[in-house]
Amino acid sequence: MKVPSLPALVDAVRAYEHASRYAPDARWHRVVVLVDTTFAPGSEVLGKLRALAPEMIAVAFCSLSKARSISLRTGSRTTPFAL
C-alpha cells in the first residue's frame, strides 16, 4: 500500500489552486482529492487532511472492483453483485 505524504500533498494542492486563481485567464481551479481506502478503511485519512487543510475538498471511497477477489467483502461490509 502506498501512503502519500499528506503535508506535501496539501502544499502541492494549495500551490496549484493559488497559481490558478491568479493566472492571466483568471479561472480558479479547485482540486478534489479522491482517496481509495479499500485496503485501509480505518486509516482516518480524511480526518488527517481536515486537520492539515480544512478548506480542502476530499472524498474517501472503498473500491468495489476488488470485492470479488476478497470473498465478496469490501470495507468490512458485504457487497451484493448483479451478475
Report what the structure shows.
The structure is a single chain. The protein is α+β, with helices and mostly antiparallel strands and 83 residues long. Helices cover 29% and strands 17% of the residues. The protein has two helices and four strands, in the order H-E-H-E-E-E. It has helices at 6-21, 45-52; strands spanning 32-36, 57-61, 73-74, 77-78. Strands 1-2 form a two-stranded parallel ribbon. Strands 3-4 form a two-stranded antiparallel ribbon. The model is unreliable at 76-83 (pLDDT under 50).
In short:
The chain is of the alpha+beta class and 83 residues long. The protein contains 2 helices and 4 strands, in the order H-E-H-E-E-E.
| Biggest sheet details | 2 strands, parallel
SSE order in H/E notation?
A: HEHEEE
Low-confidence stretches: 76-83
Principal-axes geometry comes out as elongated
% residues in beta strands: 15-25%
How far is the first residue's CA from the last residue's CA?
29 Å
Radius of gyration over alpha carbons? 17 Å
What is the averaged pLDDT score? 75
- Structural class, from secondary structure content? alpha+beta
**What is the helix content?**
25-40%
DSSP summary: helix tally: 2
Order of strands across the main sheet: 1-2
> How many distinct beta strands?
4
